[in-house]
Amino acid sequence: MPKAAPSAFRCTECGWTTAKWVGRCGECQQWGTVAESAAETGIVRSLRPVVVGQTRVARPISEIEAESSVHRPSGVAEFDRVLGGGIVPGAAILLSGEPGVGKSTLLLEVAARAAATGRRVLYVTAEESAAQVRLRAGRTGALHSELYLAAETDLATVLGQIDAVEPQLLIVDSVQTVSSERIDGLPGQPSQVREVATTLIRVAKERGLPVLIVGHVTKDGTIAGPRLLEHLVDVVCQFEGDRQSALRFIRAHKNRFGPTDEVGCFEMTGDGIAEVSDPSSLFRSTSRASVSGTCVTVALEGRRALPVEVQALVVATKAPQPRRVVNGVDPSRVAMIIAVLERRAGLGKLGEHDVYISTVGGVRLVEPAADLAIAIAIASAVRDKAVPNDFAAFGEISLAGEVRPVAAAPRRAAEAKRLGYTTILDGDAGSVRSAVTLAMQAATSERERELDAAF
């Protein structure tokens, strides 16, 4: 009797194979990703001779036509901004995000806008029924005669729909719920995801058909499935946002046709998703009255400079351990800034006070350029003096008490001046002591504000 072929073990992240099971992948060094793989099946690709005169013959790069690979606007300006100007024919775009963030709503809007321009769009939904998608499309106004809808979970049937409809844009929602009969395993397993993605991308390249693929994420925020999926596609976009906030951001982590430092802004409304072309007013208070403990900084989201208001509240306490409550900023940097203010700026014993720091609009500041605004907001709250409404600050604070310059300072300053901020403190302030002194000189106390209001 012939011996059965030994089972192979494959890493679900990078595809590395081994004859026996190991706990750690020898290629990508990930733990717990090596699993037994079934015998691979699929279409056998035989060698074919290259025939002169066919389009697949290698040609000099100067003779390749570039007009067929230009960006074509999708109709959603914020989405086109992230992609680099639009969708390139034959491109494979992977869109991932947390459950419920609005991926399907965004792509349905993209499909409707593209269909409105005269392009035929095929929207394949493998998670919802056709009636459910039709109901959402009617609510968001995404109905169009050139938008075709198919509820399919089989890869062969999806390919048949492509042949029947002949679309100019294909949307698959999602790659983890479509399966192929040629591969053993349930939908969503690495082998199934690899086969489905490879087939869709091959169809996209052969026909010049752009494909938008929705991908699920795991509990740690990474894209579910093999890591090979991110290498196969041309563009990897992340759609993110807080469920408690209506604001959504889309950014590209990989883009073969454009930049990866652009950010698109959207807002979830009752009628679907709306573009936010100028989000400068989303992260600032609507009140024009000066209040102590507030300062505006200019943060960078991709290439966009966004003004963000930082609020601070400092309250005396008799507790042995004062509270440090932060929302939207890094707690470790806040603790460092408090120590620098107490040691280098002579702000008093902040260890005897509870300090609360928050940002307006739920935005999260992760760059060190917000250090100076946080320090001025804390100083304003301690001395109960409000900085003027036309005051903005950005700069990194070091442990030595220096204010260091930050990246793209001219762009930040230009955006602040465009919005009416005439007094700007940046990395040229020198030290944090001098920066706080300048801010407090421009600030007014509560008594002065009451007198100004009276007269």
From TrEMBL:
Q: Which GO terms describe its molecular function?
A: ATP binding; ATP-dependent DNA damage sensor activity; damaged DNA binding; hydrolase activity; zinc ion binding
Query: What InterPro entries does UniProt report for this protein, alphabetically?
Result: AAA+_ATPase, DNA_repair_RadA, P-loop_NTPase, RecA_ATP-bd, Ribosomal_Su5_D2-typ_SF, Ribsml_uS5_D2-typ_fold_subgr, Rubredoxin_2
Query: Can you supply one Gene Ontology CC term for this chain's record?
Result: cytosol
- The UniProt annotation places ATP binding at 97-104
One of the protein's GO biological processes: recombinational repair
Please indicate the residue ranges that the annotation assigns to the motif RadA KNRFG motif: 254-258
Q: Where's the RecA family profile domain?
A: 68-217
Q: Where is this region: Lon-protease-like?
A: 354-455
**Source organism's superkingdom?**
Bacteria
What keywords were assigned to this record? ATP-binding, DNA damage, DNA repair, DNA-binding, Hydrolase, Metal-binding, Nucleotide-binding, Stress response, Zinc, Zinc-finger
Q: Which PANTHER family match?
A: DNA REPAIR PROTEIN RADA, DNA REPAIR PROTEIN RADA-LIKE PROTEIN
| Domain remark in the UniProt entry | The middle region has homology to RecA with ATPase motifs including the RadA KNRFG motif, while the C-terminus is homologous to Lon protease.
What NCBIfam families does the annotation carry? sms
Q: What does this protein do?
A: Plays a role in repairing double-strand DNA breaks, probably involving stabilizing or processing branched DNA or blocked replication forks.
Please state which protein family the record places this protein in: Belongs to the RecA family. RadA subfamily.
Q: What is this protein called?
A: DNA repair protein RadA
User: What gene makes this protein?
Assistant: radA
